[in-house]
Design a protein that fits this description.
EC number: 4.2.1.17
Shape: globular
Helix content: 40-55%
Structural class: alpha/beta
Bound molecules: hexanoyl-coenzyme A
Protein name: Probable enoyl-CoA hydratase, mitochondrial
Family: Belongs to the enoyl-CoA hydratase/isomerase family.
Number of helices: 12
Enzyme class: lyase
Keywords: Fatty acid metabolism, Lipid metabolism, Lyase
Strand order of the largest sheet: 1-2-3-5-7-10
Strand content: 15-25%
Order of helices and strands: EEHEEHHHEEHEEHHEHEHHHH
Length: 260
């Protein structure tokens, strides 16, 4: 394909995992307009591809992404930001309907940390460093760093990170719940692909309902979220996949899901 800043691939034993590798190594995968637009396009293509069940996004061993491209945005005026709706197109990552897994090796800073947090699950390599260093360059996080980080690790830790720019280690990120698991750097991407393969083996229909339901916990009050969850739970009883899944359990065999 004709991508300049990313590598797009389909991987996994059954070729059911969409793989996106951020590929601006000389700039530590700084996220410029071109890269973010290609990333959005690749995610749109994977969402539309019935053979793909889940998506892995990764960078290099040195950097997942060292942030938004400082050289590109340095000269932006306030007016440019407002009239150009700067960063609005980043939302595509969080709006991807298929499950997304960030495999973070090395630096995930600023927009890089925010990009990882837009994914559904984060796995980290043992040398990963995550942070929101915007305060050091006279700005604040602009793509969810003050919001998603606070929901992920709580106010005190998020406040400390955003106000100091201090990075946290992979161990700290795991302990605080920002990432689900840590692996040796060279095993990370393989483990993320295995996770994506496991998700891809589930019913795509049920996966879509489940992902949307977890995300409601992020975006609403607990009571609204619980009500929404219960209705979606009820809705699964209208599917053949629920009948098949439960029957297969009772009959002690593997389920055969059909998305009906
Ligand atoms: C543009 C960047 C960059 C960035 C690194 N580079 N980060 N270019 N934007 N965010 C470039 C460097 O300029 C350099 O280019 C090359 O990548 C290698 O980086 P070095 O600094 O030489 O590497 P190193 O000494 O190993 O230090 C690594 C680092 C440091 C600690 C990650 O690069 C760093 O602090 N980067 C900036 C991190 C940051 O502040 N991120 C937040 C950005 S603001 P040359 O041409 O000199 O070789 C942000 C706003 C978010 O993300 C708002 C919402 C999206």
């Amino acid at each position: 394909s004709n991508y300049q800043f990313i590598i797009k691939d389909v991987v996994g034993e059954k070729k059911n995992v969409g793989m996106i590798t951020l590929n601006r190594p000389k700039a530590l995968n700084a996220l410029n307009k071109g890269l973010m637009s290609e990333l959005g396009q690749a995610l749109t293509e994977f969402d539309a591809d019935n053979t793909v069940g889940a998506i892995v996004i990764t960078g290099s061993e040195k950097a997942f992404a060292a942030g938004a491209d400082i050289k590109e945005m340095q000269g932006n005026t306030y007016s440019d930001c407002i009239l150009g709706n700067f960063l609005a197109d980043w939302t595509k990552v969080a709006q991807t309907r298929k499950p997304t897994i960030a495999a973070v090796n090395g630096y995930a800073l600023g927009g890089g940390c925010e990009l990882a947090m837009m994914c559904d699950i984060i796995y980290a390599g043992d040398k990963a460093r995550m942070g929101q260093p915007e305060i050091n360059i006279g700005t604040i996080p602009g793509a969810g760093g003050t919001q998603r980080l606070t929901r992920a690790i709580g106010k005190s830790k998020a406040m400390e990170m955003c106000l100091t720019g201090n990075m946290i280690t992979a161990e700290e990120a795991e302990k605080s719940g920002l990432v689900s698991k840590i692996f040796p750097a060279d095993k990370l991407v393989g483990e993320a692909i295995k996770l994506a393969e496991k998700i891809s083996a589930q019913s795509p229909l049920t996966v879509a309902l489940c992902k949307e339901s977890v995300n409601v916990a992020y975006e609403s009050t607990l009571s609204e979220g619980l009500r929404f969850e219960r209705r979606y739970f009820h809705a699964t009883f209208g599917t053949k996949d629920q009948k098949e899944g439960m029957l297969a359990f009772i009959e002690k065999r593997a389920p055969n899901f059909t998305s009906e």
